[in-house]
Write a structure and sequence with these properties.
The chain folds into two domains: about 55 residues, 2,3-Dihydroxybiphenyl 1,2-Dioxygenase, domain 1 (Roll), CATH 3.10.180.10; about 55 residues, 2,3-Dihydroxybiphenyl 1,2-Dioxygenase, domain 1 (Roll). The strands form two sheets. It has a four-stranded mixed sheet with strand order 4-7-6-5, with helices on one face. Strand 2 and strand 3 form a beta hairpin. The chain is globular and about 40 Å long. About 25% of the residues lie in helices and about 30% in strands. The longest helix is centred in the middle third of the chain and has 13 residues.
Amino acid sequence: MEPRISIITLGVGDLARARQFYVEGLGLPVGPGSSEEIVFLPLTGVTLALYPREALAEDATVSAHGSGFRSFTLAHNLRSPAEVDAFMAHALAAGATLVKPAQEVFWGGYSGYFADPDGFLWEVAYNPFFALP
């Protein structure tokens, strides 16, 4: 197997709201193949997709019901604590909910968490041990 993650799909409650948050709020580009039914957001090395929660659950043949901690987070690493603070402020201004303010953390970096409008957790971090391209 060739190790790869190509697309991370978020099952969202309101596709228009999610698109507005990620595209207009955070400024992510809309990629080819996007439509009224799905939004592709090309990132460096992976694509983030937004798709209605009910339709995604139906496609996977699982229940769409349930809430709480989803047992994963998405991370956006930056090059300095100042960049973390600036991006956190940008996300909050775009409609994110503050979960944990950015701060120095036990592993030697600096990070905080916000939740998108559907409750998906994003860690925004500066990790001096994780080189960015």
